[in-house]
C-alpha cells in the first residue's frame, strides 16, 4: 500500500510513504522515500511491562555503507561503533516521538532506522523522523501520533522546504521542525547564520504548515489499514485516594519549601527529600498493599502539582525571581596563563569552565568516507566538547566515555558558536566546556563561556554569542487534553523547573540574530503562539546576557597570547626539497618528533610549519636551516666533472656522494655507460669505489641532482673538477645542452 505527498520548494518533489511489504513481523514498519533516498523504520514494543518507572524507549539510527554504494573502511569491513552523527540523529528522532506516548506506558519500545538507499542529494535524517512516525502510527502500539517533520533552508532569501544537500551548502538556515496535528510543535532543532528573529519565526511557521501535509498522509494510511491500538496489560498510574492522602498530608509542607527563597539547589533538594521520606513511611502504613511505584509517584504527583500551581496561580518561582528574570551572572577570563584562552561563566548555580586550544589545520575533524557519503559532513576546524562530571550535581559516577546527553549538549553549543568563527582562521580550534556546577541550562552556559574564551584567545569572532533556556508551565484543557488552557513561560530555568515543567526551549545568538535553537517538548504538542512568545522572551534575555558579558570583555583580543601557537610558511627551493624531506620523509618526521611542530606542504616550494609555542617554532627553524644548509653544493659548477664515491648498489643504478656529508643521489643505469646494462655489477662497480661524474645542476621539475658518467666518454669532457679547485671548463654551449639532454 502506497501513499504519496508532494512538497514544493524550487521544484515539486514527491515524498512517498509506504507500508506493508517489508519487515512485517515488526509491530509497525514504514518506508519513506524522497528522490532516490529511502529509509525504513521499524517499531516493536513488548507486551509485558518493564521494571523501570519511566518510558523505556530506545531509538537507533544507523548508517549503512551499502546504502551509499560503499564498503566500510575499517579492518573488518563491517559497520562497527556508532558515529556522532548517528547518535545525534537518534536523539532527534527520540525527542520528536517521545512526548506522544501515553503517560504510564512503561513497556520496552525500540525504534530502529535502517537506511536502504542514499542518493547523495536528499539527506535521510528528516525522512527517518517521518518513517518513525508512520511506523508507530501504523502499529498497534499506543501512541498519540502521527507527527510530520521537514527541513527548512534559506537560499538567497528564499525559503526551501526539504532542500537538497547542494542547496543546504549555501543555506543560511538549517531548521528541522516536527509538528503534530492542529499545527502544533513537538520538536525544533536549528542552526543559523545569525538569522533575524522575524525571519526565523517565519521559517518555523512555514515548516509547521508543511508538516501537516505529511500528517494527513499518514492518517489516511492508518484509516485505510484500519489500525486498532492494543490495550496494555497495565498503565502505570497512582490511585486517586493515595494522591489525595498525600495532598492532605504534605502539600503545605512542600509549599513551604518551594516558597522559602533562602534555599539553594542542594538545601531545597534535601528539604523536599526529608518531607518525601516521612510521607512515604506514612503511605506504607495506610496503604500496606501499595506498590513501590505508587508510593514514590504519589508524592511526585503532589510535589509537581504544588510547584506548578505556584507558578500558574501565584506567578512565583522557587528561587523568588520574576518569571522573566535572569539569575545572577558573573564572568571571568584569562584564568590560566598557559592556556590559549579561558573563561569562567557563572549563572546562578550553573558554572562552566571553558578553554580554547589551537592546533594545526591537519588536526581538524576528518569524518570517514561513509559518513561523508551518507550525511554530507566534511572536515571542520572548529569543535566544542562538553563534559558533565558527576560532581557537578553532587553525585558519584563513572568518568570517561561519552554519553548521548553530553554529545547532544556539546553539539548544540557548537552550533551556537560556529557561525561567528572566521572561515579563514589559520588554526583548528577546540573549545572544551566543563560543567563544574549544574542547576539548569548548562548547554547554554557552555555557549556563553565558549564565546568569552574565544574572545580571550584572540579569535576574531564576528560577534559575542549568548544563550538562554526558556521553560513552560502549562495547564491542559480538561475537555481536550491536547490543548493548553493556560500557561506561563519562565526565563533562565532552574534544573527543577526543567524537570517539573513542560518544555526546555534553548536559544542562542548574537545581538543581531539567532545562531542555534533546540526545543524539547514534554507535552503532545505546543501551539505556534507559545513558540513565538518563547522566541521573543529568549531574545530579550539573550541581549541582557550579552550586555553583562560585554562588561567582562567587549571584543576579541587584538593579538593572540604570547605563549600561543605560531604558523609560518617556509620557502624551500626545489633543489633543496629532497634534502628537506629526506629519504621516505625521514627528515620531516624527525623535525616533527623532536620539536613538536606539524609540517604540511602547500605547493612545490612552500611548506606550512605549525608550532604549539614560539619556542618550538624557533627550534624547528634552526633544525630546518641546519638540514637545508649545504654550502658545498653551492660550490658545484654546471658542466664540471667531480669524483663521486659509491655508497650503495641498486638494481636500477648506484647511489653516490660528491662530498662526505651529502645525501646520496641516484646515478641511473642509463647514465653509467653508453651500452645498455641491467645491473651496475656488469661494469664491475662496487660500494666505496670512486668514479668520475659530470654535474648538470638540478632538474627544474623535481629538484633532483642530475649526474652522468657516460658523457665522460665524449671527447668534450676533458677537465676533472674538484671542490677545492676553481677552474673553468672549456665547453661549447651546444655540447653542454646536448649532454644535458642525454642525461
From TrEMBL:
A Pfam family matched in the record: PNPase
E.C. number: 2.7.7.8
Domain of life: Eukaryota
GO CC term (a single one): mitochondrial intermembrane space
Entries under InterPro entries matching the protein: ExoRNase_PH_dom1, ExoRNase_PH_dom2, ExoRNase_PH_dom2_sf, KH_dom, KH_dom_type_1, KH_dom_type_1_sf, NA-bd_OB-fold, PNPase
Listed GO MF terms: 3'-5'-RNA exonuclease activity; polyribonucleotide nucleotidyltransferase activity; RNA binding
PROSITE patterns cross-referenced by the UniProt entry: KH_TYPE_1 (PS50084), S1 (PS50126)
Keyword hit for Nucleotidyltransferase: yes
A biological process term (GO) from this entry: mitochondrial mRNA catabolic process
Enzymatic class: transferase
Keyword list, A-Z: Cytoplasm, Nucleotidyltransferase, RNA-binding, Transferase
Boundaries of every S1 motif domain copy: 639-710
NCBIfam families in UniProt: polynuc_phos (TIGR03591), PRK11824.1 (NF008805)
Similarity section: Belongs to the polyribonucleotide nucleotidyltransferase family.
Protein name: polyribonucleotide nucleotidyltransferase
Upper lineage: Eukaryota, Metazoa, Chordata, Craniata, Vertebrata
Gene: PNPT1
Amino acid at each position: 500500500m502506497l501513499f504519496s505527498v508532494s512538497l514544493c520548494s524550487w521544484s515539486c518533489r514527491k515524498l512517498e510513504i509506504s507500508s506493508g511489504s517489508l519487515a512485517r513481523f515488526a509491530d509497525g514498519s514504514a518506508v519513506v522515500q524522497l528522490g532516490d533516498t529511502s529509509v525504513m523504520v521499524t517499531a516493536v514494543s513488548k507486551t509485558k511491562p518493564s521494571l523501570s518507572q519511566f518510558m523505556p524507549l530506545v531509538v537507533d539510527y544507523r548508517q549503512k555503507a551499502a546504502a551509499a554504494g560503499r564498503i566500510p573502511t575499517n579492518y573488518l569491513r563491517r559497520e562497527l561503533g556508532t558515529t556522532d552523527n548517528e547518535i545525534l540523529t537518534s536523539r532527534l528522532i527520540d525527542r520528536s516521538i517521545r512526548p506522544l506516548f501515553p503517560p504510564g506506558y512503561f513497556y520496552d519500545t525500540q525504534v530502529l532506522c535502517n537506511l536502504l538507499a542514499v542518493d547523495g542529494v536528499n539527506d535521510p535524517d528528516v525522512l527517518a523522523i517521518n518513517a518513525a512516525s508512520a511506523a508507530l502510527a501504523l502499529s498497534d502500539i499506543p501512541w498519540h501520533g502521527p507527527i510530520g517533520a521537514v527541513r527548512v533552508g534559506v537560499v538567497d532569501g528564499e525559503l526551501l522546504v526539504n532542500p537538497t544537500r547542494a542547496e543546504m551548502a549555501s543555506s543560511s538556515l538549517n531548521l528541522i521542525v516536527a509538528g503534530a496535528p492542529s499545527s502544533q510543535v513537538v520538536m525544533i532543532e536549528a542552526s543559523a547564520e545569525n538569522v533575524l528573529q522575524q525571519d526565523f519565526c517565519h521559517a518555523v511557521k512555514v515548516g509547521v504548515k508543511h508538516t501537516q501535509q505529511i500528517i494527513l498522509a499518514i492518517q489516511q494510511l492508518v484509516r485505510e489499514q484500519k489500525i486498532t491500538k492494543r490495550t496494555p496489560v497495565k498503565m502505570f498510574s497512582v490511585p486517586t485516594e493515595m494522591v489525595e492522602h498525600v495532598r492532605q498530608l504534605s502539600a503545605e509542607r512542600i509549599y513551604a519549601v518551594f516558597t522559602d527563597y533562602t534555599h539553594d539547589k542542594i538545601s531545597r533538594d534535601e528539604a523536599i527529600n526529608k518531607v518525601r521520606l516521612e510521607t512515604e513511611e506514612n503511605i506504607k502504613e495506610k496503604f500496606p498493599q501499595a506498590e513501590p511505584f505508587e508510593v514514590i509517584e504519589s508524592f511526585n504527583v503532589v510535589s509537581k502539582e504544588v510547584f506548578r500551581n505556584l507558578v500558574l496561580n501565584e506567578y512565583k518561582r522557587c528561587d523568588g525571581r520574576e518569571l522573566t528574570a535572569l539569575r545572577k551572572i558573573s564572568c571571568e577570563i584569562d584564568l590560566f596563563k598557559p592556556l590559549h584562552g579561558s573563561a569562567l561563566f557563572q549563572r546562578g548555580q550553573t558554572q562552566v569552565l571553558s578553554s580554547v586550544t589551537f592546533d594545526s589545520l591537519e588536526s581538524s575533524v576528518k569524518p570517514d568516507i561513509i559518513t561523508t557519503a551518507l550525511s554530507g559532513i566534511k572536515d571542520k576546524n572548529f569543535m566544542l566538547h562538553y563534559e558533565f562530571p558527576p560532581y557537578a550535581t553532587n553525585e558519584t559516577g563513572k568518568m570517561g566515555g561519552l554519553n548521548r546527553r553530553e554529545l547532544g549538549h556539546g553539539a548544540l553549543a557548537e552550533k551556537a558558536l560556529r557561525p561567528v568563527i572566521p572561515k579563514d582562521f589559520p588554526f583548528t580550534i577546540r573549545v572544551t566546556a566543563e560543567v563544574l556546577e549544574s542547576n539548569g541550562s548548562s548547554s547554554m552556559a557552555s555557549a556563553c563561556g565558549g564565546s568569552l574564551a574565544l574572545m580571550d584567545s584572540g579569535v576574531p569572532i564576528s560577534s559575542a554569542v549568548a544563550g538562554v533556556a526558556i521553560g513552560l508551565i502549562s495547564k491542559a484543557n480538561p475537555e481536550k487534553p491536547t490543548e493548553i488552557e493556560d500557561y506561563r513561560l519562565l526565563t533562565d530555568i532552574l534544573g527543577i523547573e526543567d524537570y517539573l515543567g513542560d518544555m526546555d526551549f534553548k536559544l542562542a545568538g548574537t545581538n543581531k540574530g539567532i545562531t542555534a535553537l533546540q526545543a524539547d517538548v514534554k507535552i503532545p504538542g505546543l501551539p505556534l503562539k507559545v513558540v513565538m512568545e518563547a522566541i521573543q522572551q529568549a531574545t530579550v534575555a539573550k541581549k541582557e546576557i550579552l550586555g553583562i558579558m560585554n562588561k567582562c570583555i567587549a571584543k576579541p583580543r587584538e593579538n593572540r597570547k604570547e605563549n600561543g601557537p605560531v604558523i609560518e610558511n617556509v620557502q624551500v627551493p626545489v633543489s633543496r626539497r629532497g634534502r628537506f624531506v629526506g629519504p621516505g620523509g625521514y627528515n620531516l618526521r624527525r623535525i616533527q618528533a623532536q620539536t613538536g611542530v606539524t609540517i604540511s606542504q602547500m605547493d612545490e616550494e612552500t611548506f606550512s610549519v605549525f608550532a604549539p609555542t614560539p619556542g618550538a617554532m624557533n627550534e624547528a627553524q634552526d633544525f630546518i636551516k641546519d638540514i637545508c644548509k649545504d654550502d658545498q653544493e653551492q660550490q658545484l659548477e654546471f658542466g664540471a666533472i667531480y669524483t663521486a664515491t659509491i655508497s650503495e648498489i641498486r638494481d636500477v643504478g648506484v647511489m653516490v656522494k660528491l662530498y662526505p656529508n651529502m645525501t646520496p643521489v641516484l646515478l641511473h643505469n642509463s647514465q653509467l655507460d653508453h651500452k645498455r646494462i641491467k645491473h651496475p655489477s656488469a661494469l664491475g662497480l662496487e660500494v666505496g669505489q670512486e668514479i668520475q661524474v659530470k654535474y648538470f645542476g638540478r632538474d627544474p621539475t623535481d629538484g633532483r641532482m642530475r649526474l652522468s658518467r657516460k658523457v665522460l666518454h665524449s671527447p668534450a669532457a676533458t677537465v676533472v673538477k674538484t671542490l677545492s679547485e676553481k677552474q673553468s671548463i672549456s665547453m661549447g654551449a651546444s655540447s653542454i645542452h646536448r649532454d644535458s639532454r642525454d642525461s
